[in-house]
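Protocol step 4 of 5: obtain the predicted structure for the target chain.
Materials: sequence only (see below). No template structures provided, no constraints applied. The aim of this step is simply to have a reference model before the mutagenesis design in step 5. Sequence pasted as it appears in the construct record:
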Amino acid sequence: MYSLRVEENEYTLITQGLDYLKTVPDNSIDFVICHNVLEYVENKEEILKQLVRVLKQEGTLSIIKHNLFGRVMGSAVLGDNPHAALDLLNNVAEDSMFGNRDVYVIHGDNFHAGFVEPENKGDFFVNGEASDNVLWEDILKFNWDCIITTAGRALSQGIDVLIDYVIEDELPRVRELASLHDASLYYIVLTATEDELERRIWNRGDLDMIERAKFLKRKLDSLPENVGHIYDNTDIPLEKMIDEINLNNYKVL
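Step 4 output (structure tokens):
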């Protein structure tokens, strides 16, 4: 959709909030996308009224919200875990290494999804190195600014946070965040053999990311601060991982 929008249609990217939306003229927008937003805001009704107001009479409003069937598909397809998907459908309580607590999961890749479509992720890297066409350092900093801000908001509301993202040199920022909110910090580096990483990435279709993944593995394996925090999950099913990982063994703060 992104590539189609750029190459074949004029478009306006609006990054403002509700106050700005109220200034947009009636019946002025052809296509409105509201994906994974409504579950995080309190004034849902007002937002929907404004989205409908600005939409042209023959326009399209696309709304996506996190839901059970999305979690089922995510477990079955992205997580390659059909058993977890069936448990969700059968209303079986989910196991959690955090116990019976509210946990907000942050997937770092979500924040840079707006820069490039998934099928073009190879543009970030050429043979495992950052592409000259993309300022990867700026994108990485943007990702981490978003992660830290989002995690801070959740922690301030007493919600536990799980950050699902590769930490290269950002551990001091995460430690500072945890200290600021007087939170415990558990740090686990999930890894696998290079052959297993290549197999997983191949199955995912991100072939241009293979060399980058291998480079990151070698870097993470060699960092002194990662000693005692690395968990190799090669050929280990999710259920066994949950049983084996004892958070107290990975506590940093």
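Step 4 remarks: Strands lie at 29-35, 55-64, 103-107, 125-126, 129-130, 160-164, 189-191, 230-232. The two ends are 43 Å apart (CA to CA).
Proceed to step 5.
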